[in-house]
Amino acid sequence: MRKLRYSMDSLDQALRGKGIFNIEEVEYAVLEDNGTVSVLKKDEHQYVTKKDMKLHSHKQAFPVELIMDGILIEENLKNNGLTREWLDSELKRRGKQLADVFYGVRGTRQQLIFDFYEDGVTKPIDKE
Questions:
Q1: How much is the average pLDDT of 44-72?
Q2: For residues 108 and 61, is the Cβ–Cβ distance under 8 A?
Q3: How far apart are the first and last CA of the chain?
Q4: 57: Cβ contacts below 8 Å, ≥ 6 apart
Q5: Confidence check: pLDDT of 50 > 80
């Protein structure tokens, strides 16, 4: 660190940026060529994962925007094996139609999320 003129303050700052406020949690730290610090935490300070706890994981996918600013993105429907008829039937189940939707996305767990133009907000909380 001395050769690189990297101070303990710089190391502490880099660790804090990774959520490490106690240097005793660190097993090993590496100053990378690009100036970032990579850290291996001591075993007792590492995060527990679902696999560690033998919990069932749910399949996730990248979210797909289907409607933006009220405009249907037909290419995203097509690229994901979805049809306009399917989307219309999903909207109909909610008592809505495409003209009612400001934003629509199929989420990471294949769920549909819609933001409608008329969402029932009559008095916004934030005032300018």
A1: 90
A2: yes
A3: 50
A4: 50, 51
A5: yes
Please enumerate, as own/partner, the contacts of 30-39 that have beta carbons within 8 Å and a separation of 24 or more: 31/1, 31/4, 31/6, 37/11, 39/15
Residues 6+ apart with CB under 8 A from 28: 39, 40
Task: Indicate the SS3 state at residue 119.
Answer: coil
* C-beta neighbour count of 88 within 10 angstroms: 13
Strands of the sheet containing 71-72, edge to edge, are 71-72, 64-68, 101-106, 112-116
List alpha helices for 2-112, DSSP H.
Answer: 8-17, 74-79, 84-93
Show the tokens assigned to 28.
């090993």
Q: How far apart are CA 15 and CA 23, in angstroms?
A: 8
Q: Which residue has the higher pLDDT, 2 or 71?
A: 71
What sign for the dihedral angle of Cα 100, 83, 73, 67?
Answer: positive
